[in-house]
Design goal:
By secondary structure, the chain is of the alpha/beta class. The chain has one domain (30-145): RutC-like (60s Ribosomal Protein L30, Chain: A, 2-Layer Sandwich). Helix content is 35%, strand content 28%. The protein contains three helices and eight strands. The chain has helices spanning 4-10, 52-74, 98-118; strands spanning 26-29, 32-35, 38-39, 45-46, 49-50, 80-90, 122-128, 137-145. The strands form two sheets. Strands 1, 2, 3, 6, 7 and 8 form a six-stranded mixed β-sheet that branches. A two-stranded parallel sheet has the order 4-5. The model has no long low-confidence stretch (mean pLDDT 96).
């Protein structure tokens, strides 16, 4: 059986070492890995200049960054279960497709961990009037270490 680590490598996801910053990008507490919010490189407002498709790619970018932080903290993606994602979308007042945007993060987790298995997670997708640095999307996650 191919694990999440190998699937990530096949998708070209790399796990460069990260320098410690102002906040911890991923912290272990008991048998959980809890990440900080990871922002997309894409800037702008969904529903006002940015499309759902662009937002989807931005959410996937956030999820990729989360996986790097988890890998740097835990050493592998194997043996993990995705518990919860929180997706934040910089949204125009009348934009209501936050859930479709955050599918970019969820779909990557499903692809790596299995939609019917360890990747089947709880999720919230919320709209915000602004996000730090003008990022289009921010995502945070909780993983369970299955030991």
């Amino acid at each position: 059986m191919v694990g999440a680590e190998q699937k990530a490598a096949e998708l070209g996801i790399t796990f460069e070492a990260q320098q410690p910053g102002y906040l911890n990008l991923c912290i272990r507490s008991g048998n959980q890995l809890i990440t900080s919010g990871h922002t997309s490189d894409l800037k702008g407002v969904l529903g006002k200049g940015l499309t759902v498709e662009q937002g989807y790619a931005a959410a996937k970018d956030c999820a990729t960054k989360i996986l790097r932080s988890v890998h740097n903290t835990h050493g592998t993606l194997d043996g993990l279960r995705v518990i919860k994602l929180l997706g934040c979308v910089y949204s125009a007042p009348d934009f209501t497709d936050q859930h479709l945007v955050i599918n970019g993060a969820s779909d990557l987790m499903h692809e790596l961990f299995g939609k019917d298995g360890d990747g089947y997670h709880a999720r919230s997708a919320l709209g915000f009037a602004a996000l730090p640095t003008g990022a289009a999307v921010e995502v945070e996650a909780i993983f369970e270490i299955k030991e």
